[in-house]
Amino acid sequence: MASSSLVFQLILAALLVAYAIFLFKSRLQPKYVRRSALAILAAGVALNMYGLYIQGFYEGFLTIFGRALVLSIKMFVYTGEVFEMSVAQNSPYFLDLYYFVFYAAILTSVSAIIMLFGKRAMTMFTLFFRRSKFNHVFIGVSSRAQVIARGIKGEDIAFIEFPSDEDNEQFSVSGLLKGFTNESSKESVAYRHHLAVLRAKRRFGAYDPTDNIFATIGLERLKRLTDSKTAFYILSENTERNLNELMALLSDKDLMKNTIHVCLSREGVARYYKTILKHTGVHFIYPSSMAVVELMKNPAYHPAQLMKPVHTPEGLPTGTVDGAFNAMVIGFGETGQAVAKFLYEFTAAVRPDGSPLPVRIMVNDVRIDSLLGPFSFDNPAMCKSGLMSFSALGTESSEFWKKLSGDIDELSYIAISLNEDAASLDLACTIFMYALKHRRNGLDGLRIVVRKKYTPPHEVKLVEKMNERAGRKVIVCYGEYEKVFTPEMVVSKKKSGINRSATALADKIAKAYSAVSGDTVRLESSSESFHDKNRARMELHQMISRANHVASLPLFVQGADACANVDAGAGVDVGNLSEAALQNLAGMEHLRYQRYLTAHGYSYGPEDDDVFKTNHQICEWSALSDNDRRYHLDMVRAQLSLL
After folding, report:
1. Nearest to 344 by CA among 378, 391, 399, 386
2. pTM, 2 dp
3. Would you state the pLDDT for residue 420?
4. Cβ(476)–Cβ(301) under 8 Å?
């Protein structure tokens, strides 16, 4: 009988050990085990077909392949003698290769069984006897939730999923565990039945938690694993049902203490929940506001691109702008309202005489009567500022096109956010063609932004063709950017709980401000008070707003070419800024900050109060104290230092 060399056998033994280590290392990655099983199955089929061939089986290829496949599958579910080809044992190296694949198949099966049952049993055991509380609980698995979870370091995280009504009606292993929930009556509320703990680990890796459903436990048991410091995140598509489940789990007292981040996309539903959960720890997030953050962060989309910075006769920047800014928002749903706030805040600029840049924001929506009421109630000072005007014209009506044709020469920024993506892009292209032919300055000084959740390839090509015809980006499509965070999603009671990727630029501004002024900026609160946490959230929100404003500063100082210089690493020559220019930029920063406060429902008050939403800085620049003026000046210097 021919035998293989000892060296070959040692190599196979080493590979087998390495494979065992690989299975252990990839125990949290089921896809690697599945791929390994397929590779081993293919190798087993090849070896068995070869063995059957030299054994003398000639029933045809399909018959040999079928028998080899059965023999290979038996390797994974070994119940007795698998190898049955005595003649093949005389083939050099065959037997060693065969048993290498055989033992690898057994290792794969054992690993899969342990992954499927053993870990679930261990997780059930550890969850039942667990005493430490979860710091963050994500209800529902979504890509946004996973991104946020990966940014939270050093704190215990749990992913859970509430079962559907159909799941509740079916018999499952969770029914056997119902005793853990302390529920003995069938009349108990159905949504307290059970929930799936998808992931409960200190470190969260870059894989899909839905691949790791470990165990099911009762809601009452979960409640013992949370406390007032636990932050809940409801960011999945089933927001309404998940929020109802959580409200059933938590008492009114808990709702006051816990921080609960809820992503609601439907306006009517959001208004209902905002009413019944007012003055609780629930904070609402809107996908549309996340999408508009993309406009804020990208200098290419910024309204400052369309403003005209003023320079001295020597060519030095003055920190002021000239002209006027006219914008139209078509569609005043959640996205349109977020864009209107964005334009209201980030068109804040001063002219050489110190007066604010004339800004006009025209809002049009056929449902404006029903939309404007809640908006003006939440932001009364913004609606009374004189910067905004409202009309209720359908985009198919002759009145709308008559108004648009009369305003098109003066319009700089057109934001379209209709209910249907196709209708929004079609309207943008129509306006583009009309402006190209009939606008006094053609496409110069015009930007059309379109909210798109999804842009098909043929529509992408259409936009590219039009922008190519214009020689620059006139039509800009933006959508929900999953890696953009709103401050409501990142504030935690622990500093380590604040998502660092979400607040990195805010942290840099805070440090730069400390270096310039010697003062510090508080970004979070350690207090358990809801109002203190809300104040900390507002402070962080303001800092992130300033961080977004950094993108526009080069435009105010050097004009549209500044973006290309900054992107190329050239930066901004702060040394060319005179003290007067810095003062003008500080006045612009105060005006932006004032509009930021107004857009969030604040009004003037001698005392700053984030509960009653009053602030003493909602006033003219001349009415500020020296300390307030110095604060804005130092903040501008800090922002410029980052460029």
Report:
1. 386
2. 0.70
3. 85
4. yes
